[in-house]
Structure formats: structure tokens, C-alpha cells
Amino acid sequence: MTEQDKAAGFSLEEDLTVDFNPLEAFAFDDGEAESEAPSVLAEGPFNMPDPAAVPQFQRELVSFANGETAQQRIEALFAQMPTFHKMLFAILKDCEEPIATADLEAHVEEMKRHHHSVYDSLTFADLLARAGAIEQTDEAGTPLAEVEQEPLRVEVDGAEFWRVAPAPAVYWHLTADGAAQLDTYRPLEMIAQLYEDDPRYAEVFTTCLELCARGGGASLREIGDVVDDEPVLQSPKRYAMYFIDKLEHAGAVEWMGQWSITEHGRAYLDSLSEE
Asked: Quick check: pTM over 0.70?
């Protein structure tokens, strides 16, 4: 420290004792109260999904295997497999009545034709069963754990023997918790919500549905050629994939080699025509 500093009353020791909190010094208070949790369809920066819109249970449950209740495990399973929602819900729908393993496997294989997956067909059923959404039963819907098999009485060379009865055929059936989860899948309401959330894009959504309703569906390029130059899509700039992605998540369209309308999307499109 120089003599000039001492003369000016500067002390290094005293200066280091000054309380300084950079978080407080540079904090900004805009005076606004915290807003409500954003919609799961809300956008974040750069038109990307908003991280704040992630459902709370995704942060609370690391794995569906550690959920205390079937409802928690089912919610966590769906949260961790967002790209397979349609397939998972389709399996739940199939299991409303007991369905044979071979029939369920065949249906999942059909769905996988246009939705590549590293999972085996029955892996999805196994995951849903572990979560508590479906269970293995006999043809009548009785859980296999409760099925009692009487031993078979057979006779060989005049001598009678008891033989273990063959295991019953395995069926898959929806549980009460699985039925509750299936009830949350309401595509018509989800599609309507898209129109309510973005009313300025209503005509664009409708055009996309109409193109996907054509025989054989439509490619993304074909849809883009029609909608990308619409004035409403120029600021902020939007492209066809933005709308197809939203419609797919709402259950209105699906990829079948081309983008095609689903039964729910067609029903909603018909309702617009009636209005």
C-alpha cells in the first residue's frame, strides 16, 4: 500500500470485510408475481418446448419402478415414453376385454411397421403390467395368480396317475388403474384445445387435416407447399412440421408412410364441416 493510499484513508483490510452479495447486487425485481404453470403445449425460447411445462411427476419419479402406487408408476411410464403414447394407449384399449397374447402381439407388430422401435412387441405389455395398468389373466379375465388348475387323472397300463395340468393360455386384461389412465386419452378434446390455444392458426390446422385426409395421406413437402407461404406464418416464422407435430401429439394425424388423418382427426374435421 502506498503512502498516498494511507493518506487517503484506504485500508485493504477494511475493504475486504465489506459484505458483498453479487446475487443481491445484480438482482432485478420486476414486481410481477409468479405466473401460473404454462401449458404442456407452451413454447419456450427459440420456439422450442418450454422446460417449465414438463409435468411435475417427471421430476418427482426417476423411474416408474419406484412409484408407490400403480397410478404413480403408470404416469411415470407414460412420462418417460412420450413418443410411444399412441402405442401404449392402443394397448390399453385392446385390453379392455381379455385379449390373447398372440392377438396383442400381432396388433403391436402392425403398429410398429410405421413406428420403429427397439422394443419387442410384448415389451410394451410387460412394462404396462409392471406399472399396474394391465395384468395377465385367463380367457375369462381371472388373474392367473387366482386360477386354480386341478391335476389331470390319467391311466397307463391299468395304473392311475396324477399329472400336472397344462398352464392356461395367457390373456391380457385392463386393471382399474389402467382404465383410469385410458380415460385420460381424449383426442377430440386435445385437438379442440389446439384451436383454442392458437385461434389465428385455425385455418392452417384445418388445411393440414384436410391434406392428411386425402387418400394415401400427404408428405410433409406437399403440406409445406400449401401452408408455408401463408401470411400468418411469416411472423413468427412457422413451417408445416410445427403444425403436424402438434396435431400428431393431439392424436389427429399419424405417420403411415405418409402423414394420414386418424379416426379422431377425421371426426373433428367432420364436426367443423357441420358447423
From this structure: no
